[in-house]
Amino acid sequence: MKWAVDELLAAVAKRTAATRQPVYLVGGAVRDRVLGKPIHDLDFVMTSPTRPLAKRLADELGGGLYVMDVERDITRVVLMDGDERLVLDFSALRAPDLEADLRARDYTVNAMAMDVRPPQTVIDPCGGLEDLREKRLRACGPTSLSDDPARVLRGVRLALSLSARIEPQTQAWMRAAAPLLSRVSMERQRDELFKMLEGPHPATAMEVADQMGILRQVLPELEAMKGVTQSAPHVHDVWMHTLEVMKRLEQLWGVLVGDFREGSAEGLVLATAVTWLGRFREQFAAHFSAALATDRSIRGLMMLAALYHDVSKPVSRSVEESGRIRFFEHDDRGAEVAAQRARALALSGDEVSRLQTLIAGHMRVHHLADQPEPPTRRAIYRYFKALGAAGIDLCLFSLADTWATYSHTLPQEQWLAELRVCRALLEARWEQTEAVVQPPRLVSGGEVMRELKLKAGPAVGRALEAVREAQAEGLVTTLEEALVFLRGWRDDETEG
User: Fold this and answer.
1) Which of 8, 76, 120, 342 could be a cystine partner for 347, CB 3.0 to 4.6 Å?
2) Could you give the number of structural domains in the chain?
């Protein structure tokens, strides 16, 4: 980022020097500055109208200017450096003075301010600096969370990102405020939820959210999974398995998608995954960088899929005479439940579709791995035709699901079977795209109708698809071969 934070603070101070107008950096930016963490959003408070100062900065720095809230006097400046974005928000004080403004905030670690003018001392009326040192999350006061229940969600995220323990009194206030989340818009609930799913240790975040009574308010369908037993090879009940999938997905993501470091693939399971799939790291990174919605990642969506992939097991559960527990159609039923929740959370149509596709198809790789032979080119073609881009997601997801199913009892041969299938799928997707996954069209609908003397209708579509499958199998490579194939296909279709 070409804009250093110190330079921006100096620029703000310079613009206010003539008016002697105090401007303070507040909230998370102060906290992250103390901790030496990267800062992407700067929040300022001031006593006079915010727009004049914000406009001067936007004009001088080449940024965009947005009036976010006229009534509350909030103005935003957005600075871009390639794909990186730095946001500067200027707000009027929400209380008679700065100290009252800070005391009305959520947690002490967010209730600090810094005068932008030298010597830039930290103003800390609630003891946030000591809480940072002690790795303690503490609410500013008895009504801090009930005043805005969305702060309960934020508290879980903060505790995880700061590796902080939640102080007992704050825990009590969080539990008391959790039932009030119904007052919070679904969009705000969604945004805080995704920050948890995209942050460090999302499974732990869900465990803490569950302990605080948050999950039954935000994701109520998950409650029924607790204590639902499963047959071997599962070693956990449905809810514990769900959390385990999230943990394993995070680990696999770290070595196959994230910035790989020597020694990060500790243990045989991760090391074997890197050996088989590590060569696709760049392709994985490019694939998962293509977000389906602004400010939300595919990683977060996959963690949501992990939470919901077995959500319909409780209602699908049956026990055979042998005592074996089965969950017929839990994948399709779960996909619909997840889609309903995703729509309630105001996810985009693309996100809902991707989530639904991933959960409905989450058994596909397992089924392919159970076969004695590697997947055929035809099977691979059908896999990606059904799943599209979600087929790539599912490779990582299925590995996490398998690992979580067996946990410490994972047989090496089962792990290798899943890895072989995933490598075959990814090789076809990224190294044999035109040959196997997306063969170029050799014949048109008109040519099919002329050759087979068909009228427009479903039979033409079936014929075109049959040619594409034959191409994927390597049986057809030219127009002439396609026409010969179609004549045989017509005879088979007629006989069928």
Assistant:
1) 342
2) 4
Per-residue pLDDT tens for 150-203?
A: 999 999 999 999 999 999 999 999 999 999 999 999 999 999 999 999 998 999
Are residues 68 and 162 located together in one domain of the fold? no
Q: Are residues 338 and 245 in the same domain?
A: yes
Handedness of CA 168, 170, 172, 174 (dihedral sign): negative
Q: Do residues 168 and 210 make contact, with C-beta atoms less than 8 angstroms apart?
A: no
Q: Locate tokens 């109708």: which residue?
A: 449
Neighbours of 261 (CB within 10 A): 9
SS3 for 69? strand
Do 292 and 350 contact (CB within 8 A), yes or no?
A: yes
Residue 35 CA to residue 135 CA, distance in Å, equals 11
pTM attached to this predicted model: 0.92
Distance CA 40, CA 210 (A): 30
Which tens digit of pLDDT belongs to each residue from 23-79? 999 999 999 999 999 888 999 999 888 999 999 999 988 999 999 999 899 999 999
Task: Tell me which residue range forms the domain holding 242.
Answer: 225-437
